[in-house]
Write a structure and sequence with these properties.
Structural class: mainly alpha
Distance between the termini: 58 Å
Radius of gyration: 23 Å
Strand content: under 5%
Number of helices: 19
Order of helices and strands: HHHHHHHHHHHHHHHHHHH
Mean pLDDT: 83
Shape: globular
Helix content: over 70%
Number of domains: 1
Length: about 450
C-alpha cells in the first residue's frame, strides 16, 4: 500500500497552500506569513529596548516616559477617523480600479490631516507653557521645566507622524499590510542602536530618550513616503490639483463614526497609565507596562493574522461573497482558541520570564499578570468581529458599545485600584470589564449580517 504523504511532498504542499485557492485568500496568507516574520523581529527589538531603556533611566523615569508618550498618543485619534475612512474608501476604489478617485481620496486626506495637525500644533504651542507637567505626572516640582521641553519635543515629532502614517494606511487598503508592518520594527531598530550608543556617553537623560523614540519612526516614514510615492504608488501620489474637499463627506461620514469609536478606545485603552500615575505614582507604571508588553505578544500575533482581513472583508462584502466571509471567520475563531491556550502558557511562565527579561529591578504581581492575560483574551476575541464590521462599515452598534465602555472605564478602574486596594491589577480589570459589552453584541451583529437578516441598529 502506497503512502499518501511523503516528506518529499511537503515543500510542494507548502507552495500550493500559499499559491492556490481564492486570490483574496492567497494574498491574505502571503501577507500573514510576511507579517509574522516582521512582527517576530519587532517583538525581539521591543523586548531588547525595555531592559536597555530601564538600565539607562530608572523605573520612575521610565514610567514618566511611558505616561508622556501615551498622553501624546491620545492626539492620534483626532484625525476624526479619516485614516480608517480612507482605508475603506481606498480599498473600494482599488477594487473597481478607479485610480483617479483613489488619488483624489489620498490627496484630500493628506490635505485635511495637514490642516488638522497645523491647528493642533499651534494650539499646543500656546497651551503647553501654561501646564504644570510635574503635577499632571505626579512627580517632583523641579522637573516641571524639563518635562515641558520633553513634551514639546515629543509632540513635534508626533505631529509629523500623524500625517506621515497615511502611507501605512495605503498599503493596508491595498491588502499589503506586511509592508506597513515593517515600518515600526525599522524605527525601533534605529532607536535600539541609538540608545546603545547613548549609554556609552550619557546616563539617565529623559530628553535624549524622548528624542530617539520620537524621531526614529518619523525618519522611517519620511523615507518610505518618498520611496513609494515615487515608485509603486506614484499613480496616487498626493498633489494639490487632486485635492477635492467634496470627498470629505464620503470620507468623514464613515470616518466620524470611527472617530467616536476611536475616542471610546482612547478612554478605554490609553488612560491606564495616567490613572496609575495619579493613584499609585509613576514608578508603578513600569511593572504595569512590563506585563502589558508581555501579554501584548498574543495580541500582536493575532493582529498579524487579522489585519489583511479588514480590506478583504470590504472587497468580499462588495462582491456579496458571504461564503468566503463565513469560512474566514470560522477559521479565525479556531486560531483564537489556540491564542487562549498560548495566553495560559504565558501566564504560567510569567514570573520566570520577567526575571530573565528585566531582572529584579521590577516586580510584577501575579494578579496583574492574570488580569493582563484576561485582557489579551477579550481583546483578541472582540477583534475577530470588530475587523469584519469595520471592513463593511457597519460600526454604529460597536460605537455605542464603545461609548458605554468609555463611560464606565475610568470610574470602575479607579474603584478597583483604590477602593478595593487592587492596585494596577484593578486598573486592567476595569478595562476588561468595559470591553465585555462588545464581546456579546458584535458577534451577534456579525452573524446577522452574514445571514442577511440584519435590520435597524444591526445593519448600520
Amino acid at each position: 500500500m502506497q503512502n499518501r504523504f511523503s516528506i518529499i511532498d511537503f515543500p510542494n504542499i507548502v507552495v500550493d497552500y500559499f499559491t492556490k485557492g481564492h486570490p483574496r485568500s492567497i494574498k491574505a496568507k502571503q501577507n500573514i506569513v510576511a507579517s509574522f516574520a516582521l512582527k517576530g523581529f519587532s517583538i525581539l527589538i521591543i523586548f531588547l529596548l525595555v531592559p536597555f531603556t530601564l538600565n539607562y533611566l530608572n523605573p520612575t523615569k521610565y514610567g514618566l516616559w511611558l505616561t508622556i508618550s501615551s498622553i501624546i498618543g491620545w492626539f492620534s485619534f483626532f484625525d476624526i477617523g479619516l485614516g480608517n475612512g480612507l482605508r475603506n474608501k481606498l480599498a473600494e476604489a482599488f477594487a473597481v480600479k478607479d485610480y483617479k478617485l483613489a488619488k483624489a481620496y489620498v490627496s484630500t486626506t493628506y490635505a485635511i490631516l495637514l490642516l488638522i495637525m497645523a491647528g493642533m500644533f499651534l494650539l499646543f504651542l500656546f497651551i503647553n507653557p501654561l501646564l504644570d507637567w510635574s503635577k499632571l505626572l505626579n512627580t517632583q516640582p523641579e522637573m516641571a521645566g524639563e518635562l515641558s521641553r520633553i513634551v514639546l519635543v515629543v509632540f513635534t515629532f508626533f505631529a509629523l507622524r500623524f500625517v506621515l502614517n497615511l502611507i501605512g494606511i495605503i498599503f493596508t487598503s491595498d491588502q499589503l499590510p506586511a509592508v506597513s508592518n515593517g515600518f515600526d520594527p525599522l524605527g525601533n531598530l534605529i532607536a535600539l542602536v541609538s540608545i546603545y550608543i547613548m549609554t556609552k556617553f550619557t546616563h539617565g537623560n529623559l530628553l535624549y530618550i524622548s528624542i530617539i523614540y520620537s524621531a526614529a519612526p518619523v525618519l522611517i516614514l519620511i523615507i518610505a513616503s518618498f520611496y513609494f510615492f515615487n515608485g509603486k504608488y506614484e499613480f496616487i501620489k498626493p498633489d494639490l490639483k487632486s485635492v477635492d474637499f467634496k470627498h470629505f463627506k464620503s470620507l468623514a461620514d464613515l470616518g466620524l463614526k470611527f472617530f467616536v469609536l476611536q475616542i471610546a478606545v482612547l478612554i478605554i485603552f490609553s488612560t491606564d497609565n495616567m490613572i496609575i500615575t495619579q493613584i499609585l505614582g509613576p514608578a508603578e507604571v513600569t511593572p504595569y507596562n512590563i506585563a502589558f508588553k508581555y501579554f501584548s505578544i498574543p495580541i500582536m500575533i493575532f493582529t498579524i493574522v487579522l489585519t489583511p482581513f479588514w480590506s478583504s472583508y470590504t472587497e468580499a462584502f462588495a462582491a456579496d461573497d458571504m461564503k468566503w466571509i463565513k469560512t474566514s471567520i470560522k477559521r479565525l475563531i479556531m486560531i483564537w482558541l489556540a491564542v487562549v491556550m498560548g495566553v495560559v502558557f504565558l501566564l504560567t511562565i510569567s514570573k520566570h520570564f520577567y526575571l530573565m527579561w528585566v531582572g529584579d529591578k521590577v516586580y510584577v504581581p501575579f494578579m496583574l499578570s492574570a488580569f493582563m492575560g484576561l485582557f489579551a483574551i477579550i481583546v483578541t476575541w472582540n477583534n475577530i468581529f470588530a475587523y469584519f464590521v469595520n471592513g463593511v462599515g457597519k460600526i454604529k452598534l460597536q460605537m455605542y458599545c464603545g461609548i458605554i465602555g468609555m463611560i464606565i472605564n475610568i470610574p470602575i478602574s479607579i474603584y478597583f485600584a483604590k477602593n478595593l486596594n487592587m492596585g494596577s491589577a484593578g486598573v486592567i480589570l476595569g478595562t476588561c470589564t468595559s470591553l465585555i459589552i462588545g464581546s456579546f453584541f458584535i458577534p451577534i451583529q456579525t452573524l446577522k449580517i452574514i445571514k442577511g437578516g440584519s435590520k435597524g441598529i444591526w445593519n448600520k
